[in-house]
UniProtKB/TrEMBL annotation:
Source species of the chain: Myxozyma melibiosi
Protein name: ClpP/crotonase-like domain-containing protein
InterPro entries linked: ClpP/crotonase-like_dom_sf (IPR029045), Enoyl-CoA_hydra/iso (IPR001753)
Top-level taxon of the source organism: Eukaryota
Length: 270
């Protein structure tokens, strides 16, 4: 992969694994980060590292010159992101501790306003990725937000469950986690999962209406976000295996308790 820095935009590009392009909006109100990892914009090990690298470059080379909000969107019309490549996530050394969890943390603490322009489906990890932004605008004509771990029998690691728990209402979290609800734009707006319906052409008006270019100038913006989301960040900092072991330990303890209760019930019946 090669990162080049022409005068007007930045490109992170690998023909086999995906690309990230950064440009300045014609209005001058924000930077636009457009990413693509065919065929469905999964958060692969490579694209996670690419994101971390490009975000560092933006902060190091663009923000000192002009602090602006950052908008992310997809190069693939059908998908904002279809989540993780689960097989590769499970088999890539350091994926959780060095790639996806640091990416979530980086977004949560990013020093200027972050807007996800959700142009298509955002499933599972892609949904979480969008929620790590400060604001979300969703295509009103197509696409769903969904966490479908329930459907393929996968638990949510602590950082992922914390994103849903801290970023959504309890009733919405239930619909996400244990009902695998698919939210279209109208439902997403009703449940406060997004802040507006619209297309990329509507982003300028949204940023202006919410004074995001002004807020981007504040040196405390990232610090305030870090405090706001510290309960998510602490799980992102926790070693993945430690969190998974805690889940296994809790299940093991509860299984023992259930057996004790069942044995006591049987004795009482006898």
């Amino acid at each position: 992969m090669v990162l080049s820095l022409p005068a007007e935009f930045q490109i992170y590009d690998d023909p086999a694994k995906g690309s990230i392009t950064v440009s300045k909006a014609d209005s001058g109100q924000y930077y636009l980060l457009t990413f693509g990892a065919p065929p469905d914009n999964r958060l692969t090990p490579e694209i996670c590292l690419a994101f971390l690298y490009v975000l560092d470059v933006i902060e190091d080379q663009l923000l000192p010159e002009q602090k602006l909000p950052l908008v992310t969107t997809s190069k693939i019309a059908k998908f904002y992101s279809n989540g993780l490549d689960l097989e590769r996530a499970m088999t890539t050394p350091g994926f959780w501790d060095e790639r996806i969890n640091p990416l979530f943390k980086r977004l949560l603490e990013y020093p200027t306003p972050l807007v996800a322009m959700i142009n298509g489906h955002a499933f599972a990890g892609g949904f979480m990725f969008a929620l790590c932004h400060d604001y979300r605008i969703m295509n009103p004509d197509k696409g769903f937000l969904c966490a479908n771990e329930l459907e393929f029998g996968s638990p949510l690691p602590p950082p992922m469950s914390a994103i849903f728990r801290e970023k959504t209402a309890v009733t919405t979290y239930q619909k996400i986690a244990i009902e695998a609800t698919r939210f279209n734009a109208d439902m997403a707006l009703e449940h406060n999962l997004i802040h507006a319906k619209g297309h990329l052409s509507d982003v300028d008006a949204f940023i202006k209406a919410n004074k995001l270019t002004k807020f981007a100038q504040s040196p405390s913006y990232g610090l305030l976000k870090a405090q706001m989301w510290r309960d998510i960040v602490k799980y992102c900092d926790e070693p993945h295996e430690q969190g998974q072991q805690a889940i296994r330990d809790n299940i093991s303890v509860e299984e023992k308790r259930k057996k004790v209760r069942a044995d006591e019930y049987k004795k009482a019946k006898l």
